[in-house]
Specification:
Helix content: 40-55%
Oligomer: single chain
Structural class: mainly alpha
Number of domains: 1
Number of helices: 3
CATH architecture: Orthogonal Bundle
Order of helices and strands: HHH
Amino acid sequence: MAPDPVTQQIRAILGAQGRLGHSSQTFSEDADLFDLGMSSHASVNVMLALEACLGVEFPDRMLERSVFASIASIRRAVRELASAEAPGAGPRGKEP
């Protein structure tokens, strides 16, 4: 079974922006990213890259450490944001 494309994008963004002490391809989806070396500053860079790459915008209520603590928690947040978009619309309500 092929890996989930959103998870692949999250891993790629973490590899580029997360400043992790490990390869973003090797740890479990539930591993604590902050324990792996991601700083709060790096988490902001990850958030900005996710917004740009995935076409979502994190509202203030999601700007918490727990949202960015693991790949699984980031994926849940991204899916929640994507499902809040208008049906049939692309990212940020634009046509694909």
